Amino acid sequence: MSTTAARQVATKVTVVTAPACHFCEDAQVALGDLAARYALDISVVDLESIEGRTLVALHRPAMNPLVLVDGAFFSAGRLPVKKLTARLRSTGRELPDPIRAEG
Questions:
Q1: Across-strand partners of 12?
Q2: Is residue 43 classed exposed, middle or buried when 0-12, 13-18 and 19+ CB atoms within 10 A define those classes?
Q3: Distance (Å, whole) CA 43 – CA 80
Q4: 85 burial class (0-12, 13-18, 19+ CB within 10 angstroms)?
Q5: What pTM does this model have?
Q6: Which of 39, 47, 69, 80 lies at a C-alpha separation of 20 to 30 Å from 11?
Q7: Distance of alpha carbon 68 from alpha carbon 40, whole angstroms
Q8: Is 57 exposed, middle or buried (0-12, 13-18, 19+ CB in 10 A)?
Q9: If the chain, 103 residues long, is cut into consecutive pieces of 10 residues, what is the mean pLDDT of each piece?
Q10: Cis peptide before 65, with omega less than 30 degrees from 0?
């Protein structure tokens, strides 16, 4: 699949982050790891930006980060990585394993 094709079917993940938020940092690291296995379009939005304030006003998360998947609320606070992995696996958007592809 070409990079352009992968972007067209990528799962959009939006992470609204706050300063000095360790859950926010952990979520970004986990999403980086998942992006190696799944077609993801990750947007990191600062809580203090207009977009961040708008998303927080709309979804009213109890904690940071606010995580949206394809525009819908997914989680707030510590990112549930296993739950997100299961959801991504169900989309069929797993990227080819470069090691298996070469062999």
A1: 41
A2: exposed
A3: 18
A4: middle
A5: 0.84
A6: 47
A7: 12
A8: exposed
A9: 54 97 97 95 97 98 97 97 95 70 46
A10: yes
Length reported for the chain: 103
Backbone φ and ψ for 71, nearest 5 degrees, come out as: 85, -5
- Residue type at 31? L
Quick one: DSSP state of residue 75? Answer: E
> What tokens were used for 83?
């739950």
Q: Is 14 helix (H, G, I), strand (E, B) or coil?
A: strand
- Please name which of 41, 33, 69, 67 lies closest in space to residue 52, comparing C-alpha atoms: 67
Q: Is 79 exposed, middle or buried, given 0-12, 13-18 or 19+ CB atoms closer than 10 A?
A: buried
